[in-house]
Design brief:
- It is a single chain.
- This protein is 25% helix and 18% strand.
- It is an alpha/beta fold.
- The chain has one domain: Alkaline Phosphatase, subunit A (3-Layer(aba) Sandwich), CATH 3.40.720.
- Strands 1, 2, 3, 4, 5, 6, 7, 8, 11, 12 and 13 form an eleven-stranded mixed beta sheet that branches. It has a four-stranded antiparallel beta sheet with strand order 14-15-16-17, with helices on one face.
- A hairpin with a 2-residue loop joins strand 14 and strand 15 (384-388).
- Helix 5 runs parallel beside helix 7 (239-266).
- The radius of gyration is 21 Å and the shape is globular.
- The chain starts with 9 loop residues before the first strand and ends in a 35-residue tail after the last helix.
């Protein structure tokens, strides 16, 4: 079904960095203050089972943008080198060269495309993928003050709180395009609530959590495979300060998201604008004894707290207000969904796994065939892969394991690994077959993550044959 309208909607796509699905008031967390995200949920739809494609930033972001899985686009870890710039590595790498992004489709159909915030997909100094407005973080992460930002190809050290600076730039983009006949697309990519958390956030927001008990983030015994280096030394010893900073980072971001919503209303274009909020990957703040995401452990983990993300979409008059969708969808479904929703002609590439869920956004019941296609979601992080149904999760680590099997219906917190239980041997084999058949169908052999030494410590260059002769991934330190 083609969900078009007489005028292409404006689109504001807001992307958080490391926000767990639990870190949202509308998602049931009574301790965290997110009134503006809750406002988006109340005015639109919240998805309770939205999964990132890989539980780490750069691969997940590339998949949102291109509709490809990491073993198709070749970014298998966070980009540690190739961003360019005097304050980091000097050389640049175009990690997505030749790969089509939905923003290019939008630009070719008349959209003015702007990016304010985090890029972290290589060569940060060069506007890419149809963006004509380009205000980005040089590397992808830093302290929240004195952040290295790129404007017009030049480095600016931003003395202000970077969440505010990103928002101010986004507001200027909205102001400059609100009165135009052509629609606009704006990506607002915050670095929040990524670390650092201590001594990095305005006192007005940290004070909100001085008396918080943080019962929504119980600190469990450390996971045996926990990597302290994934979030920095001292995190475990200063968990309360880190929790205050993490919650404050979310609430500060929420405050500035409110400014964006207000500006759309002031221009009288809120009803002409689709607003989407999500995160690149999930995050654990003590969950499972981990501080971090997929690379919070080695080998990498696929816990729901790492692979699930919040996802909100609001468009007054089109998306049913106050609705919740429990269908399982993935970041690789985002590109075809956004293009269909925007009324952009799009011919589905059979080599891409994603399917549009625009019908779900509009409150239509999912068709049986669509449900069959979407009943399983898949994730990968280098040689670690996951198949997830509503009832079961199977995790396979190439080549040697360990592997995992969870009954998500009876054990939603993934406490009991059933992989060695003979009662579930057939179930494990069926899930393994399903996982391998799916990846055989979609993997580009030149980009296959199971052949890459991905450590979670960062990607240094192109993967596969394109980077042959080069060290593509950082060693496990």
């Amino acid at each position: 079904m083609n969900h078009t309208q007489s005028k292409n909607p404006n689109i504001v796509f807001i992307l958080a960095d490391d926000q767990g699905p639990w870190a949202l008031g509308a998602g049931g967390n009574h301790e965290i203050l997110t009134p503006n995200l809750d406002r988006i949920a109340a005015e639109g739809m919240r998805f309770s089972s939205f999964f990132c494609v890989s539980p780490v930033c750069s691969p997940a972001r590339a998949s949102l943008l291109t509709g490809r899985i990491p073993s198709q686009h070749g970014i298998h870890d966070w980009i540690r080198a190739g961003n360019g710039g005097a304050s980091g590595q000097e050389h640049t790498v175009d990690y997505l060269q030749g790969q089509r992004a939905y923003t290019e489709e939008l630009a070719e159909h008349g959209y003015n495309c702007g990016l304010s915030g985090k890029w972290h997909l290589g060569d940060s100094y060069t506007p890419q993928k149809g963006f004509t407005h380009w205000y980005v973080h040089e590397k992808g992460g830093s302290s929240y003050y004195n952040a290295p930002m790129i404007r017009d190809g030049k480095l600016e050290i931003e003395p202000r709180y970077v969440t505010e600076a990103i928002t101010d730039d986004a507001l200027r983009f909205i102001d400059s395009h609100a009165g135009e006949d052509a629609p606009f697309y704006l990506s607002v990519h915050y670095t929040a609530p990524h670390s650092p958390w201590i001594d990095n956030h305005p006192k007005a927001f940290t004070d909100l959590y001085e008396d918080c008990t943080f019962e929504t983030c119980p600190q469990e015994p450390l996971h045996p495979n926990f990597l302290v280096s994934s979030v920095g030394k001292g995190t475990v010893e200063r968990t309360r300060e880190c929790l205050i900073g993490y919650f404050a980072a979310v609430t500060a971001m929420d405050h500035h998201i409110g400014r964006i919503l207000d500006r759309l209303e002031q221009h009288g274009i809120r009803e002409e604008t689709l607003v989407v909020f999500t995160s690149d990957n999930g995050f654990n703040c003590g969950h499972h004894g981990i501080w971090g995401k997929g690379n919070g452990t080695f080998p990498q983990n696929m816990y729901d707290t790492s692979v699930k993300v919040p996802f909100l979409a609001s468009h007054p008059g089109r998306i049913p207000a106050g609705s919740v969708c429990d269908e399982m969808v993935s970041g690789y479904d985002f590109m075809p969904t956004l293009l269909e929703y925007a009324g952009i002609p799009y011919t589905h590439d059979s080599k891409l796994p994603g399917r549009s869920f625009a019908g779900l956004l509009l409150g239509e019941a999912a068709e049986a065939s669509a449900l069959e296609e979407c009943v399983v979601v898949y994730d990968e992080y280098g040689p670690v892969r996951m198949a997830r149904t509503k009832e079961w999760k199977y995790v396979h680590r190439y080549p040697y394991g360990p592997h995992e099997l969870y009954n998500m219906a009876n054990d939603p917190e993934e406490r009991k690994n059933l992989i060695d239980n003979p009662v579930y041997k057939t179930q494990a084999e069926q899930m393994k077959d399903r996982l391998e058949n799916w990846f055989v169908r979609y993997v580009d052999p030149a980009m296959d993550g199971i052949h890459e030494p991905v450590t979670g410590k960062g990607q240094l260059d192109l993967a596969g044959p394109a980077g042959r002769g080069k060290k593509a991934f950082a060693d496990l330190e």
